[in-house]
Specification:
Radius of gyration: 34 Å
Helix content: over 70%
Strand content: under 5%
Largest sheet: none
Number of strands: 0
Number of helices: 2
Family: Belongs to the UCMA family.
Keywords: Coiled coil, Extracellular matrix, Secreted, Signal, Sulfation
Mean pLDDT: 81
Order of helices and strands: HH
GO cellular component, one term: extracellular matrix
GO biological process, one term: embryonic skeletal system development
Function: May be involved in the negative control of osteogenic differentiation of osteochondrogenic precursor cells in peripheral zones of fetal cartilage and at the cartilage-bone interface.
Length: 88
């Protein structure tokens, strides 16, 4: 009877009903992994967008600051910097 019980237990483990339960659990795990992946991808995209905006704003502040410096230091004797460029 011990052999029969062991065989019966093994059949239960690999029975269609338990394999469908395992498959359902696996689908849940895969779905959770996919949600985590999408969440982290979205956060990464948000960070990259924010970093790009910050970089663009810093470039604009630098450009404005440089322009103000040029206007303040322009002596009127030479053409302004915009007209004195060697390369565009």
């Amino acid at each position: 009877t011990a052999t029969y019980q062991k065989y019966h237990f093994l059949c239960f483990i690999i029975s269609p009903s338990s394999s469908s339960v395992l498959a359902a659990e696996q689908r849940l795990v895969l779905a959770a992994d996919e949600r985590k992946r999408e969440f982290h991808e979205e956060k990464r995209n948000e960070f990259e967008s924010h970093a790009e905006e910050e970089h663009d704003e810093q470039d604009e502040r630098t450009r404005e600051s440089t322009e103000q410096w040029r206007e303040f230091h322009y002596d009127g004797m030479h053409p302004p910097h915009e007209y004195n460029r060697h390369a565009i």
